[in-house]
Design a protein that fits this description.
hpI Integrase, Chain A, mainly alpha, 12 helices, single chain, elongated, 302 residues, DNA polymerase, domain 1, 56% helix
């Protein structure tokens, strides 16, 4: 029976004969895969030929927990992907468990996130004028910030998706993937207030299955209209220069959750991401904010 390290040896031989890898590259691959084998053996007690995508995702989470730098993280992920690609090509495994895992996006591609103070200012500005439009906007913002839903998931939400008893929302996301997302007290209060004026947004004599109905062709408030309403409101605040969009509220939710100690795997499920690496980018934002906070330490300014 071929053991894990025999498979690693076969991979090394391929690198030497076919890819003409340098000594440094070979050592890096070997080190990365050995540490991966150790992680799998200790935590799951399965052969690396039996590894599933979720096992690799858990390993990636452990790397993030150990605060390795981005380049090391990307190299280790690349090593594992090359290794499993080789095993698949050679017919040693039927499916490549690493194929669906993508490298996280570059930091500079991530939209800005708002501070808690900035979010509070936006919400307080909405509350200042309790018109039906603002009551609806408050519900949209509070739900978004409480759940991290995608914008389209929010605006197209049917009424029956909300469970008021356990304060959760049933969401059908990308690829038809279903998830249950909880929401907090502020969102609950905002939704309750909005339901009192919801009928004002219905065409006369008509009903709608959507929480945020509209007379438009889609039958619900469009994401573009939500963005415009938010933009108009933000223009009256001190953060008007930030070009805030509804999507930034989702990023802000994720970042604040991680800052508060939320588990990365749980956050992945709440956000509806199939790939853990998509969520891991938020750890870099949190780390950057910690560094900025550290710079305020009196001993750092001597």
């Amino acid at each position: 029976m071929v053991n894990d390290f025999d498979l690693l040896l076969l991979f090394e031989e391929m690198l030497l004969s076919e890819k003409l890898s340098s000594g440094n590259t070979l050592r890096a691959y070997k080190s990365d895969i050995k540490s991966f084998i150790k992680f799998i053996n200790i935590n799951y007690k399965v052969s690396i030929s039996k590894v599933e995508t979720k096992h690799i995702s858990d390993w990636l989470v452990s790397l993030s927990d150990n605060n390795i730098n981005r380049n090391s993280y990307l190299r280790k992920l690349s090593s594992i992907k090359e290794f499993y690609k080789f095993l698949h090509i050679e017919g040693i495994i039927d499916l490549d468990p690493s194929k669906s895992i993508e490298a996280p996006k570059k930091i500079n591609n991530i939209p800005r996130v708002l501070s808690i103070k900035q979010i509070e200012e936006i919400i307080e500005n909405i509350k200042e004028e309790p018109s039906p439009n603002n009551v609806r906007l408050l519900a949209l913002v509070e739900i978004m910030y409480s759940t991290g839903l995608r914008v389209e998931e929010l605006v197209s939400m049917p009424m029956n998706a909300i469970n008021f008893n356990n304060r959760s929302i049933f969401v059908v996301g990308k690829g038809g993937r279903e998830r249950i997302v909880p929401f907090g007290e502020n969102a609950f209060s905002a939704i309750t207030s909005y339901l009192e004026v919801r009928s004002l947004f219905l065409s006369k004599g008509k009903s709608s299955k959507y929480l945020f109905p509209s007379s438009g062709t889609k039958g619900y408030l469009t994401s573009r209209r939500f963005a415009q309403l938010l933009k108009n409101l933000v223009a009256k605040t001190s953060v008007s220069h930030l070009n805030i969009s509804p999507h930034i509220l989702r990023h802000t939710f994720a970042t604040h959750m991680l800052s508060g100690g939320a588990d990365l795997r749980v956050l992945q499920e709440i956000l509806g991401h199939a790939d853990i690496s998509t969520v891991q980018i938020y750890t870099h934002i949190v780390d950057d904010r910690k560094k900025i906070a550290l710079s305020s330490h009196p001993m750092e300014n001597n």
